[in-house]
Amino acid sequence: MTVTDLVSYDDALATYDPVMGLEVHVELGTKTKMFCGCSTELKQDANSQTCPTCLGLPGALPVVNEIGVESAIKIGLALHCEIAEWCRFARKNYFYPDMPKNFQTSQYDEPIAYNGYLDVQLEDGEVFRVEIERAHMEEDTGKSTHVGGATGRIHGASHSLLDYNRAGIPLIEIVTKPIEGAGERAPEVAKAYVAELRELIKALGVSEARMEQGQMRCDVNLSLRPKGAEKFGTRSETKNVNSLRSVERAARFEIQRHAAVLSSGGTIVQETRHFHEEDGSTTAGRIKDNAEDYRYFPEPDLVPVAPAREWVEKLRAELPELPRVRRNRLREEWGVTEHDMQSILNAGAVDPIVQTIDAGAPADQARKWWMGELARRANEGGVDLAALPITPAQVARVCALVAEGSLNDKLARQTIEGVLAGEGSPDEVVAARGLAVVSDEGALGTAVDEAIAANAAIADKIRAGKIAAAGALVGAVMKATRGQADAARVRELILERLGAEG
Ligand SMILES: [Zn+2]
In angstroms, what is the span from residue 288 Cα to ligand 1's centroid? Predict the structure, then answer.
């Protein structure tokens, strides 16, 4: 089906109700793999980070990574889940060359965390509760590279390369209950959920959750049912969607595609789908296996996991402030609107602003620089705000120089430009570039006198009471001092000289 065959989004929603299920895989930031001591660092040569256990060699025995379990419990607690008193790993049996053991060690009917929820905020400020079915522990597979074809997929390839460095890296899979009642906002809910989950994972410190690096990926399961119907329709599973925008687009496309198939009397096939970034479409993958095809059974080589209640309660007590609660607190402290806070979040500016305030800057100044000049430069450079070569402490120092009158706005911008260009700290840039407000009253007075002499007609107007005309003289003085005068002081001096009251 091509994009042009789709039913329009509005028409689809007029007839059908979408039901979604979101499965998010998070790669944990542990130092070692889930069941062996191999490093999780992926910068080495192919197959260099492997051992008999993660290569599935006969007789090799797995051992559970304690930090992996701890991270799973933290995620479960932050999602308001119940934490199992006793649970087991299970073997999910299937053959694929990137999985050398012939089974994936996962959890099946005994997940470590279950029955939770995550509240997500939509663009209009409304809060939507997404219920969590479960969060379970499992391991990643290796990586296949198909060589010789045009698309990089296995079809058309002459041969495939296998790298098992990723095999056995800890994953937490977080599965929602069916998300109903979102209607036309289903794609927005999907995006907001993944965004909120990502913030949560980062706040817990269990993963950097970089979607572009595959550390967090989302399967978007979607079905339609006629409006008012109880029974769910057949679902499709769009696999491994790896950006927030793509999650939204994939859900939207599938709504339109399902509607087109159903409206023309067709049936939806339960299958996996691939998402295509270029045009936002999905195409068929494989027919989806049912759980029974995997012949799940309890993993005999691993002891059950029975986290002590004292441990769970200790982790609960140590949970950081959750992102949505923190954002609401900061929004009130900073006195900004929901909309502004959303922009700050989208720009990745929450932490830089907080750190700048912690380094001594007033909240409004910290916000002004990060959301203004610095956001603009990050945008131009196509980098994250946090990746700019300037620290929150340096931004705070610029704010301090402005507050004490050493810099005005224009000079502060030049100082920031210098820091970003690698010219050193704000103080070093100010010294090297000679960026300081001219505060020498004698020099300023001379510049003011010259401006008055050169603009006699304007000076007469001001003497006659047209205070508004003073702007032109201030401009002339600022120009003469190359922007390095304090404009407010210049204005005072002009009005003083001409006997006008400001
Ligand atoms: Zn290993």
Answer: 30
> How close is the Cα of 41 to the center of ligand 1, in Å?
12
According to DSSP H, which parts of 79-205 are helical? 186-204
**Beta-bridge partner residues of 225:** 17
* Burial of 118: CB neighbours in 10 Å, binned 0-12, 13-18, 19+: buried
**Domain ranges for the chain:** 3-314, 321-433, 441-497
Q: Tell me the CA–centroid distance for residue 167 and ligand 1, in Å.
A: 8
Measured in Å, residue 168 CA sits from the centre of ligand 1 at 7
Single out the residue of 452, 447, 457, 461 nearest to residue 489, CA to CA.
447
Report the separation in Å between the CA atom of 216 and the middle of ligand 1, taken as the mean of its atom positions: 22
Separation CA 352–CA 342 (nearest Å): 15
Residue 200 Cα, ligand 1 centroid: separation in angstroms?
29
Model confidence over 470-479: pLDDT tens digits?
888 888 888 8
Q: For the sheet containing 297-298, what is the strand order? A: 103-106, 90-93, 297-298
Q: What is the pLDDT of residues 80-131, one digit of tens each?
A: 999 999 999 999 999 889 998 999 999 999 999 999 999 998 888 889 999 9
Measure Cα distances from 245 to 191, 194, 311, 350 in Å: 7, 10, 38, 20
Q: How far is the CA of 38 from the centre of ligand 1 (A)?
A: 4
CA-derived radius of gyration, the chain? 30
Cα 69 from Cα 48, distance rounded (Å): 25
What is the total residue count of the chain?
502
Tens digit of pLDDT for each residue in 138-193?
999 999 999 988 878 888 899 999 999 999 999 999 999 999 999 999 999 999 99
* Close Cβ partners of 404 (under 8 Å, ≥ 6 residues apart): none
Cα–Cα dist 291/213, whole Å: 29
Whether 7 contacts 256, CB under 8 Å: yes
Cα 162 to averaged position of ligand 1 atoms, centre (Å): 15
Query: Distance, CA 207 to ligand 1 centroid (Å)?
Result: 20
How many A from CA of 407 to the centre of ligand 1?
Answer: 57
* Cβ-contact 241, 264 below 8 angstroms: no
CA distances from 101 to 46, 176, 259, 336 (A): 18, 28, 40, 53
Strand partners, 20: 179, 222
Q: CATH 1.10.10: does it fit domain 441-497? A: yes
Which structure tokens are listed for 111? Answer: 């997940």
Residue with tokens 């009251």: 501
